[in-house]
Fold these 3 entries.
Entry 1:
Amino acid sequence: MAKTILVVDDSGSFRTVVKLALQKAGYVVAEAVDGKDAITKLDSAKPNLIVCDVNMPNMDGLSFARHVKASPAYRFVPMIMLTTESQESKKAEGKAAGVRAWITKPFQPSQLVDAVARLCP
């Protein structure tokens, strides 16, 4: 059975690029426009992995990561941050929030697919 990836990014065009790369690799993709939207979709999507941006309106990616990791149902779901943020302080904040991988935009789709495959075998 195909694994489900929840892609959380406020850019529709960016979600499309990520979705196409993941679908081509055989994953099912659910989408959310920000952290608050993603929270409402967790139970229906039942993601095996989450790919999330940091900078979004309503709820940023790091706040969303902390929310997910505080939830007994989702705390073991691996998270990848896919973001323009490259500061070590942000990466450390992500790691503290339970983020397993950090990929900086611009990125190669194959780089993302490889990270997803490693964290969601």
Note: The chain has one domain: 4-119.
Entry 2:
Amino acid sequence: MTEQETELHEVDDHLDYGLSVVFIGFNPSLKSGEVGHHYANPRNRFWRILEGAGLTPRLYDPSEDRELLKLGYGFTNIVSRPTRGVEDITREEYAEGRLKLHAKLKEYLPKVACFVGKGVYTEYSKKSKADWGFQPEPLIPEMYEFVAPSSSGLVRMPLEEITDIYRRLQTFLSSEIV
């Protein structure tokens, strides 16, 4: 762990009961740990993806992450420690994070757990692979599991292709409104 990482803080979860979606990342970036907001790295495309997919009515800033609770969206990570990259996360942190994440999801029971990256989902579910979109056998039967591409700027998939996958989530949520 670098000296810079030891000075960073975990980014608070934004969770509540009755949420439509909880977005689940690997762990906070160094920038997120520095400023205390989810998806704060300027190269991360998360906020543009949400707007482009129609999940938010406008482009939000990372500093407004808590405001998304009003839209029915929450945030958490499988590992809470900020790091430079996922390669810095230990097997022990994943094992502990998996248990904590399962307990959070079981308690708050959002309609959808959206895993921001296939790797996040495979670490959580212990399944060797997953397709984009809704998963056939959720670990918590009362909740849907949705796997979406990572919003990291390091992902080589075109932004429009990523946004289209997130749009499936928006379509589902729109059809569920009573």
Note: Helices lie at 3-6, 30-35, 46-52, 91-108, 118-125, 159-176.
Entry 3:
Amino acid sequence: MNANEYINSGAIEAYIHGLADEADIALQLEMEGRYPEVQAARMALEEQMEQQALQMPLANPAATRERILNALKEEKAHPTKVVAMPTDLKAAPKPIRWFRTALAASVLLLMGSVLLNFYFYSQYTDFSNRYEELSARQNVLANKANALEASMHMIKSPKVQPVVMQGVTGNAGMMATVYYDKSTTDVYLMVNNLPMPQKGKQYQLWAQVDGQMVDAGLLTWTDEAALVKMSRIANAQAFAISLEPEGGSKVPTLTEVKVLGKA
């Protein structure tokens, strides 16, 4: 191992921090004896530590701090150049071989903790999203149930007249029902069997009043609509549904009338 490889290996840092074992200490002393640049690297690192110590607040008394700084300066002024191998290595700092292993283990534990936290957070987010989705669905079903209950209550009222509209010629099988309350003029429409209109078309409800066809509202197509409240109509004698351009028409297109029923 040459000087540059030894300097870059981190052995000098371990020697200064007291983490080297007996063999490492012996190697450090040997490398300093063989290569002046190794000794210079060690002294430079000690100087760097000295500067860091000067910048950090010390809890030791001022006299103790002064003795430490003087000792470091003395070492810099009169460095000991050791060529021979030391005869007594027992006085050298005790090895702490587990330091690097403990550091690596700490890094692995930290990474494991981060990954575990990310996993649990992902699971929490997933469960939270599912809960919100189920809660939204439950609210929709509850609203449908309430609307259906209100519709059934209204349908059963003796004041409400059901008007069944059957398919006209060429539209056999089509059917829709109007629930007409003459006392309040409320009109409700239930689609029993109407095909979904093609794009650009829309179903429109008409009421016959005194021989004239009056617009009773457009049907916004949705599979969820069981009973739709339409426009109020007074004195209706009949109802019909035609397929009109999207947005509706002022008068029904006679050739597009699909169902018809008398009130």
Note: The longest strand covers residues 201-209.
